[in-house]
């Protein structure tokens, strides 16, 4: 149809020669990169999980040995528990902070651009940088304990205390560094809520809280759900802050899944086993994504 | 046609009611502003702290509630004169800038092909690119490392850079944008007898400038802030990037003022990007959903 409309001039021999191939030529550089550095390693992870691949490059196939070892490894289940616990702290906290700040930004009259910028600022730094600053903030001579000291409290062992405290402290660092992203996504969602719905509710005498609960939250649900899924996946990949701030400690209190993968791979050079942990990480992320799919499909029908 | 557009302005809500509402709103606004200031303190104070600690003499510090009595540039100059710090900075720049250039070019090419060309398997290929989004980078860390080390890429720039260039988010973003460009432009170019490369260089690249700029900022930040891949692939001191170098300083418990001075310097490029392109960055997250 379009061919008739645009009526190209008679196809020359060059057109006939070049047309079929050009798409492939343009896609070729990226395709080569993808094949070598995405497709091969993805299959490679699966393949390696059935071997005892060592640093030397020697390996033999061991069947499901790595998987058997994994289900008998307390360390693995502990790391899974650590990651889950961390996610249970990080995800709600980051949602509350980003939804709260997004709502405030949406309603504030003056200085919205300035506040939006200041709140988004930490997003442009690295987790390594965030970790280094927050080590000092959490230090017994640091910022928070300095303030606590003024009130005769403390020093609180943020990074050396019990597991809940350490994981909570790590979660706060990640929230600080990255809530700006979810805040902006939610802010865009808030802007899409029709103004007249709110006006009507106001005329009906609805208070701010009622409007938030009865109108904003329901209309924002898809966006909130998107943020929840993204942040949950991010939470399961936590590594940088743990590496910089606690090294998995104290006493493996923050020994998360990716940290275990790194530890097995690059401290014990047990590549086959580490690859198996990678496969597990993939499965966890896959399940989260499938749940997202399922819920979204159900909402749409 | 016009019946569906712009409803007339709501007729005369009583002015007294509006006034009351406005007054109540301004009361709420004070609270909103106060809360937002508190939230901004939460996000900004750590940055201020880094820069304050960076100019505080070693040992004189850690009374956090007041500024140092004495200010020094010793920490900063000590960091800058230590040869490895400058080398790490250079490495980070190479890692980030080469990645930006190559990803923008290859993703624009691939995006153009997926948006405007039909070739055998083009759909399947697009989907297989997208499917890799489901595989977290950490899950393939071990096979990637083995692959690159078998290709003798450990402690080399290409080993650091090339494996990170396969970026499906970039391809997908370019494809969406190029798909949205008007067909007439491409038809006109064809009628004028423009060759494929001419169309790409003279039409696609100039027209996609805004999205290329957005993508460029993100790719720069992703690579500048990247940690796990450089950590495993750059094992010698002179191949380290800034993030990896900072983490080793931190692990070696170098004097705190030194670490903070290093951190302060390393965050400057990001702050510059942020200062100059903040509005741009902020708007593009809302519209494209790019995630770091």
UniProtKB/TrEMBL annotation, chain A:
One of its GO terms (cellular component) is plasma membrane. InterPro entries: ABC_transporter_permease, MetI-like, MetI-like_sf. Its main location: membrane. GO terms for biological process: transmembrane transport. It is found in: Cell membrane. Keywords: Cell membrane, Membrane, Transmembrane, Transmembrane helix, Transport. The chain crosses the membrane at residues 21-40, 84-105, 117-138, 158-176, 219-239, 271-291. Residues 80-292 form the ABC transmembrane type-1 domain. Gene3D superfamilies: MetI-like (1.10.3720.10). It is a multi-pass membrane protein. PANTHER family: ABC TRANSPORTER PERMEASE PROTEIN, INNER MEMBRANE ABC TRANSPORTER PERMEASE PROTEIN YCJO. Belongs to the binding-protein-dependent transport system permease family. This is Sugar ABC transporter permease. It comes from Jiangella rhizosphaerae.
């Amino acid at each position: 149809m379009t061919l008739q409309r645009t009526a190209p001039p008679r196809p020359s021999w060059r057109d006939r020669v070049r047309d079929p191939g050009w798409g492939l030529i343009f896609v070729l550089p990226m395709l080569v990169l993808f094949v070598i550095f995405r497709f091969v390693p993805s299959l490679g992870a699966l393949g390696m999980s059935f071997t005892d691949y060592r640093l030397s490059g020697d390996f033999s196939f061991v069947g499901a040995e790595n998987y058997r070892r994994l289900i008998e490894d307390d360390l693995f289940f502990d790391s899974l528990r650590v990651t889950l616990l961390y996610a249970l702290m990080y995800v709600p906290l980051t949602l509350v902070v980003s939804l709260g700040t997004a709502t405030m930004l949406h309603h504030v009259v003056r200085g919205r651009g300035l506040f939006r910028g200041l709140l988004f600022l930490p997003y442009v730094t690295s987790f390594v940088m965030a970790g280094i600053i927050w080590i000092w903030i959490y230090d017994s001579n640091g910022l928070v304990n300095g303030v606590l000291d003024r009130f005769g409290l403390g020093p609180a062992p943020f990074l050396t205390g019990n597991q809940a405290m350490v994981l909570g402290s790590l979660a706060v660092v990640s929230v600080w560094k990255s809530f700006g992203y979810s805040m902006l996504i939610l802010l865009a969602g808030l802007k899409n809520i029709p103004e007249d719905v709110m006006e009507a509710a106001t005329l009906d005498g609805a208070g701010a809280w009622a409007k938030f609960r009865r109108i904003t939250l329901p209309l924002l649900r898809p966006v909130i759900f998107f943020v929840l899924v993204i942040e949950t996946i991010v939470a399961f990949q936590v590594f940088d802050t743990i590496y910089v701030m606690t090294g998995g400690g104290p006493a493996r209190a923050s020994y998360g899944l990716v940290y275990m993968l790194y530890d097995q791979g690059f401290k014990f050079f047990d590549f086959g086993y580490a690859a198996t942990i990678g496969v597990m990480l993939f499965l966890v992320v896959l399940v989260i994504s499938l749940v997202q799919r399922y819920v979204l499909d159900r909402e749409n029908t | 046609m016009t019946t569906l557009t712009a409803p007339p302005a709501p007729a005369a809500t009583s002015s007294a009611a509006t006034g009351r509402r406005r007054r109540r709103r301004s009361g709420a606004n004070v609270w909103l502003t106060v809360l937002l200031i508190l939230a901004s303190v939460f996000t900004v104070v750590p940055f201020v702290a880094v820069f304050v600690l960076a100019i505080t003499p070693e040992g004189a510090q850690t009374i956090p509630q007041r500024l140092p009595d004495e200010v020094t540039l010793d920490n900063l100059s000590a960091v800058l004169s230590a040869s490895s710090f400058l080398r790490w900075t250079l490495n980070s720049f190479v890692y980030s800038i080469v990645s930006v250039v190559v990803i923008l070019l290859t993703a624009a090419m691939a995006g153009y092909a997926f948006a405007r060309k039909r070739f055998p398997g083009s759909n399947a290929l697009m989907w297989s690119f997208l499917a890799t989004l489901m595989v977290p980078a950490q899950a393939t860390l071990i096979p990637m490392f083995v692959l690159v080390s078998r290709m003798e890429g450990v402690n080399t720039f290409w080993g650091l850079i090339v494996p990170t260039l396969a970026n499906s988010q970039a391809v997908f973003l370019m494809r969406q944008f190029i798909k949205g460009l008007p067909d007439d432009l491409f038809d006109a170019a064809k009628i004028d007898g423009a060759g494929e490369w001419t169309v790409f260089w003279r039409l696609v690249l100039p027209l996609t400038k805004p999205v290329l700029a957005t993508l460029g900022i993100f790719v720069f930040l992703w690579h500048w802030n990247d940690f796990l891949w450089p950590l495993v692939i750059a094992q010698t001191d002179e191949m380290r990037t800034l993030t990896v170098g900072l983490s080793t300083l931190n692990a070696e418990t170098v004097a705190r003022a030194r670490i903070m001075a290093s951190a302060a310097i390393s965050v400057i490029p990001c702050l510059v990007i942020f200062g100059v392109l903040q509005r741009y960055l902020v708007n593009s997250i809302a519209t494209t959903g790019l995630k770091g």
